[in-house]
Amino acid sequence: MADNDKILDPKTEERIRQMARVVCICKGINLGRVLKGLEGSETVADVNRKVGTGSGGCQGERCGPRIKLLLKKMQEAKGS
Ligand code: FES
Fold first, then answer.
1. Which helix (H) or strand (E) holds 23?
2. Is residue 80 exposed (0-12), middle (13-18) or buried (19+ Cβ within 10 Å)?
3. What digits encode the pLDDT tens for the residues 31-72?
4. How far is ligand 1, taken at its centre, from the CA of residue 61, in Å?
5. What is the Å distance from ligand 1's center to 26 Cα?
6. Number of CB atoms found within 10 A of residue 27's CB
7. What is the 75 CA–ligand 1 centroid distance (Å)?
8. Does pTM surpass 0.90?
9. CA 29/CA 18 separation, integer angstroms
10. Best substitution site from 21, 22, 26 to test ligand 1's pocket, by max atoms within 8 Å of Cβ?
11. Nearest CA to 23 among 36, 15, 14, 32?
12. Number of neighbouring beta carbons within 10 Å of residue 5
């Protein structure tokens, strides 16, 4: 496929690729779903309750720190 045959521009394509990345490996929950769970959440537990992260085999050992970082960045961006 030639570059000019691409349906999406490279920025959009990269954004979609990032959203499809798995954050919670145990439960197969991707970044797009986690970002939706971040809305209105103040803690990792809030996000876990909304989207099901943290309830897999590792009990959030792997995804918890990533979600915590995402929450922090979101709160910084909001200025709170
Ligand atoms: S990676 Fe999320 S519960 Fe294990």
1. strand 22-24
2. exposed
3. 999 999 999 999 999 999 999 999 999 999 999 999 999 999
4. 6
5. 4
6. 18
7. 22
8. no
9. 13
10. 26
11. 32
12. 6
